[in-house]
Amino acid sequence: MFVRHLIACAAVVVGAAVTGRPLAAQIDYRNLDEGRPVTTEDAYPVERYAFELVLPYVYENERGGGRTHLLIPELAYGVVPNMQVGVELPLVVLDRGGPGAGTDLGFAGPRLFALYNFNTETPTLPALAIRTDLALPLGDMAGDDVRMSLTGIATRGWGRTRAHFNAAVGLGGDGGVPAVHGIPDWAASVAVDRTFLRRSLIVIGELGAREHAGDGTEVTVGLGARMQLTPTIVLDAGAERRLGDRGPDFGLTFGLSHAFALAALMPRGAR
Description:
single chain; about 50% strand
């Protein structure tokens, strides 16, 4: 089962790379995606008609000695102005730690999402957006119930510095919550980033809190960076550390994203 899902994800990646064409003049390194490289995202979607293929790797070191590895291929599409839709396909390797605990491999269930931006920021109002996620109970390491979340997002800039605030609430059944990559009961985070234009680099610091299935509040601090390698490829890396006695000891993330378009989906004048 795990191998089939891995092959399917690889087919998506190869197909996108072969059939897509680059988007001109992309400056995507300033667009913060959820979990890349920190939990907080900004209020702006991908451009209309644009695809963004994301290949992030996530590592978490658990308090009890366990280790979690995730590969979460993601494809987002700018379906209409100011709105993107997408899908994540999380693949998990869970090393439970300890003698005889064993290692689990599996698919944590598809997650569908959409983000809508209400406005660009003005002198008196930040950029505002709303995001919804839908986690489906499909896969040997997925939850037992459908879960969804609603996230409010605000972004405010001052020159090369920006601040972001995210607040999310989880909805739906909470029975059989997945061991990893589940939708929390609630989450909130604030982040500040700084752009270094000559290096096409952005550095982000974050403070966040969340709660899963009534297990208590996890408080974390994170640091990350995104760098534009080519006009269409962005590299990101980040680290996270818990501040209390709940949650993983620390986490690391590393990923690449590629922006492209399909001529068949674009209006004739834009091809």
